[in-house]
Amino acid sequence: MHNNDKKTMKTILILLSFFPLLSFGQSNTDRKILKEALLDKSGKQILVDKVLPDAGTAIAVAEPILFKIYGKDHILGEKPYNILLVDGYWMISGSLPKGWLGGTFSIILSAKDGRVIQLVHYK
């Protein structure tokens, strides 16, 4: 083996020794944290009273979800939105211009943790 070949081989071996340290996916620590969070039913992970404390925040969470599924132009065409906070859940729906026929989206989000409880688009 030539001297340059030995240096190249040594460099490759050094790089390969660090390969497991490179983050090409989730580490075992990340998976452990996720598993513990999913198993913890105490609700202690949430350090605030509500993740979605107001209508503006609820809409800011709902719109990207709706845009991805139904298209941004379609959802924006259903403004103004109807939004209500009922028993800790944001109920958001679209509206149609007076006299138009058709359906609108309806999404229900948990104010406490932001989970999507229901998502539909009526015809």
What's the layout of helices and strands?
Elements: H1 3-18, H2 28-39, H3 55-70, H4 72-76, E1 82-86, E2 89-93, E3 105-110, E4 116-121
Antiparallel strand pairs: 1-2, 2-3, 3-4
Q: Give the low-confidence spans.
A: 18-24
Rg over CA atoms, rounded to whole Å, is 25 Å
What is the general shape? extended
Alpha-carbon distance between the termini?
A: 73 Å
Strand content: 15-25%
Put simply, the count of helices is 4
Walkthrough of the structure:
By secondary structure, the protein is of the alpha+beta class. It folds into two domains: 3-39; 55-121. It has helices spanning 3-18, 28-39, 55-70, 72-76; strands spanning 82-86, 89-93, 105-110, 116-121. It has a four-stranded antiparallel beta sheet, covered by helices on one side. β1 and β2 (89-93) form a beta hairpin. The radius of gyration is 25 Å and the shape is extended. The termini are far apart.
Describe the structure concisely.
With 123 residues, this protein is α+β, with helices and mostly antiparallel strands. Helix content is 40%, strand content 18%. It folds into 2 domains: 3-39; 55-121.
Keywords:
single chain, 123 residues, alpha+beta, 2 domains, 4-stranded antiparallel β-sheet, 4 helices, extended
